[in-house]
């Protein structure tokens, strides 16, 4: 036997061994995994579905007998997430489950996803909302992800580090949390506050968007859905209502002739050297007084009451508090946001927190147009027409 024929025989034997081992793995290991995941599906969805789960070992798919919720959009029927209560497992068991589910996804290519079951042909893809920043920044991430996922056969899910579930009901997203188990394609935004149309044509894979996504244009087409997601918890609404009762004399200012104008004043962290170097600026007293007068001129038939929320209450008490302005006491971020949202109109200072207070209120809005500082790092990624709604009014 020549060396060349010996090498050729070794290659043939290796190929046969690989084929046989692959066949054994797909036949036995996949079948074992499917049986395990079938029992998991039964447990997780036993309160919602028929407890039986049919397995198709030839196509390597799992077909739980779960009633699907459908949403009708533009004469098409799209599969939505099956609503069900989640069973509890130990951390060790959960990690094993997720690993096996991830392996099954590689075999099946559809039907199964960690932390919930999605059905469809092809299966829905994940669009992960990863943590970045505080409340206002996180709201932009979720709202923009909801808009971007619309029409792309993608299901938005939340990273467990996000604080949004503690502040909002989030409707049907309550059981859709990211627990790992799948590889993600990372897609980065081009600018933090500039609309990028390319994000509406994402590759057909599980995706993580990296960035801030701070443009209303990402979700303007699905704004009603976003507004529904950002429904405050009852406890937050009650706290905001109690604060408003202490600030607003309803007898002197009856509701039918009164306009409540929320005023957001952000100061403390804007004065740091780091933020100044980035291009953050403080909204001046001159701007705030101009905004006050603008609102009163726009609402001549109303008695205007200004409700001020701030991280610098002492400054506001000294310079803004008066006959028509009331400064809210310290409270949680979500309570102050709910207070702004309950007003008829809003005056912003700087930052995304005030932006969302204005957007949720839905009335007239005045913003500080000298933000960010010219030629600063923040200014390079900031497009004013993409960040502020066209109906909002900028003053200096």
From TrEMBL:
One example GO MF annotation: galactoside 2-alpha-L-fucosyltransferase activity
Glycoprotein listed as a keyword: yes
Pathway annotation: Protein modification; protein glycosylation
Location(s) in or outside the cell: Golgi apparatus, Golgi stack membrane
UniProt keyword annotations, A-Z: Glycoprotein, Glycosyltransferase, Golgi apparatus, Signal-anchor, Transferase, Transmembrane
Main location: Golgi
EC number of this enzyme: 2.4.1.-
Keyword Transmembrane among UniProt keywords: yes
CC annotations in GO: Golgi cisterna membrane
Entries under InterPro entries matching the protein: Glyco_trans_11
Enzyme class: transferase
Membrane topology type: Single-pass type II membrane protein
GO BP: carbohydrate metabolic process
Family: Belongs to the glycosyltransferase 11 family.
The name this protein goes by in its record: L-Fucosyltransferase
